[in-house]
Design brief:
The structure is a homodimer.
Chain A lengths: L30 H14 L3 H5 L4 E4 L3 E9 L5 E2 L2 E2 H15 L6 E9 L4 H17 L3 E10 L7 E10 L14 E4 L5 H11 L15 H9 L4 E5 L5 H13 L2 E5 L7 H10 L13 E4 L4 H11 L4 E7 L6 E4 L5 E4 L12
Parallel strand pairs in A: 5-6, 10-13
Antiparallel strand pairs in A: 2-7, 3-4, 5-7, 8-11, 8-12, 9-11, 10-12, 13-14
Helix pairs in contact in A: 1-4, 3-4, 3-6
């Protein structure tokens, strides 16, 4: 059960017939399902396609389209800086942006746990709707299943996103000399969720960075920046993303570790908890690989979105997949993919 | 935890590195996730798009496209006649067919419970791959999350399907006089799952009807049948689907109840359990609304796929949403949407 299922005090303007919590009948496909869809989902996620009330949505798509899917199981459902609903939309939209695609169409599939407060669900779904509208995407199809108490954890959601590709971004475009930029401080999301969950006491509150990076990616494309790859450093963090790209592109990367922006509260928390901020997840940052002659311009644009955006490394010839992190004293270490599980259920 | 998680005896040809069960690290986005994706998912669901190893797949789609999404939480994971993997593919493909679309592209999002046997997961994923290949669809993107033991039930999966629309099928096309055909006996799936789960003893084993109805729908279109609506009677069963269509189309439907094919083992089980077979879910049947002059031909085609396909009713002028079931003795009852939950987690 969600640890935030008792938020009746927040109120809810939508009448959910006779229920105030999710019951198995809400997943039965009959009257209760219909009432939930109409009073709650459709109210928050309205679109012409949802109004059609069919088994699927019919849309018109021309040319190359990016398609991505992700499950979201973050715990707790609400955390400083965000919630599962907004995170699910942003995570999907960001993956589309990393494919060079516009955020256009979303589908959502909910697995609800019996007993979840409908006010909690309504808050999450409204948050989803707001996040989608803010980036110009719309929800065109959905589904709800209900599992028995103790067989879920409040809400799990899977989101699929579709959008037309403006320019193909792929690790295969990476060139020797490309400059690596990160769009803001890393690790805020992972630490914010961990703190919210584990009741760790820190001096400063850390808010998640969850948010959309599509606007930045499209601004770079609008301004003609030679962007080769964009990748959001979610699970596995910055280090894992760099290793993955270096492997797929068949290049080496030198990371100037002191240049990586990390908030002092995050680095303090990491030290306390024995975590390496390079492996802690972000949910609103993007790593950009840019042709060297466009690096200054790309950085200036990124800083319009987040002042701490920074140039953190460079692509070099060298063994495929090698990522070398250089520290402030000239020392070096080889970064690997995240091994084991650092922070379960951060997204 | 799945009640079938101990199937080591079935063997598994794929080496899953050091693990034989799902651990939290499989959802961490690092090395264990990668190993699971490469050794298990990609082996069973290979496609050019999955091999690209990007945040999303890039595909080319022209013209109207149907998009549908569904979550699958059926319990148990394996039941007579099917399993969650095949059901998830067929359920999605069938929704596409009901939109008049070809089954082309699928995305899959898994929520795995810590402790699930990897052999169980491999069986389900292979079953998915086989079901997809059999209908000519391919899996182009996926995601895996892992939740702690006791926060799931083995595997939940959400599938999104995409396919080009051949002809728009919609309740809005329904006309007075249209003939209603069902493609085979109803209720097998719901009863098969219930029996597998609850350890009910019946004289005869009932196998689920789960399977694809896309071939039938496309055969009808190929042969030029004036098919107005196709809808698969899943959750809520035949009765709920008829009421939904009657409401959306703004018509009445007269159902000749004795014409509805129900296996005797299913009707016996329903009597024993106090269920109405008209409300029990199918997962491999379709209800067809056909222009009267094409009804005989449509029925003959349907019987090539399933000999028990039957003409069960007719669309009439009358109050919008009214579905009248006539019994063998001339009596009538009004059918409603399923009220409450009959059989939780049948799909």
């Amino acid at each position: 059960m969600s640890d935030t299922d008792d938020d009746a005090g927040l109120g809810c303007p939508v009448p959910f017939s006779q229920y105030d919590r999710v019951v198995l009948a809400h997943g039965g496909g009959g009257r209760a399902t219909r009432s939930l869809v109409e009073s709650l989902f459709r109210a928050a996620l309205d679109s012409p396609e949802l109004r059609e009330d069919h088994d699927g949505a019919i849309v018109s798509l021309e040319g190359p389209v990016a398609i991505t899917t992700d499950g979201f199981t973050v715990r707790p459902l609400f955390f400083p800086g965000g919630d599962l609903g907004a995170l699910a939309v942003h995570g999907t939209v960001n993956d589309l942006a990393c494919c060079g695609a516009r955020p256009e169409l979303l589908t959502v599939s909910f697995v609800l746990e019996e007993g979840l407060a409908l006010t909690t669900l309504a808050r999450l779904v409204r948050s989803m709707g707001e996040a989608a509208r803010a980036v110009g995407a719309r929800v065109i199809a959905g589904d709800t299943k209900v599992v028995e108490r103790g067989k879920g954890d409040g809400v799990y959601v899977s989101v699929t996103g579709l959008g037309r590709v403006r320019r193909a971004l792929s690790p295969r475009n990476v060139r020797d000399g490309d400059v690596v930029i990160v769009s803001g401080p890393v690790g805020d999301h992972g630490i914010a969720v961990l703190v919210a969950r584990e009741d760790v006491r820190l001096g400063t509150e850390i808010a998640s960075d969850q948010g959309e990076i599509a606007s930045l990616v499209h601004e770079l494309l609008d301004e003609g920046v030679a962007l080769h790859v964009a990748r959001d450093p979610t699970r596995g963090g910055l280090a894992t993303v760099l290793v993955e790209i270096a492997r797929t592109a068949g290049v080496s990367i030198v990371l100037e570790e002191p240049s990586v922006p990390v908030r002092s509260a995050v680095s303090d928390a990491c030290e306390l908890l024995g975590l390496d901020p390079l492996y802690v997840a972000c949910e609103g940052r993007v790593v950009l690989f840019v042709a060297p002659e466009h690096a200054e311009r790309a950085l200036a644009i990124a800083r319009r979105f987040q002042p701490d955006a920074a140039r953190i490394g460079v692509v070099t010839e060298g063994p495929s997949g090698l990522v070398l992190a250089k520290n402030a004293f000239g020392g070096e270490r080889v970064l690997e993919l995240l091994s084991g599980e650092q922070l379960p259920r951060i997204c």
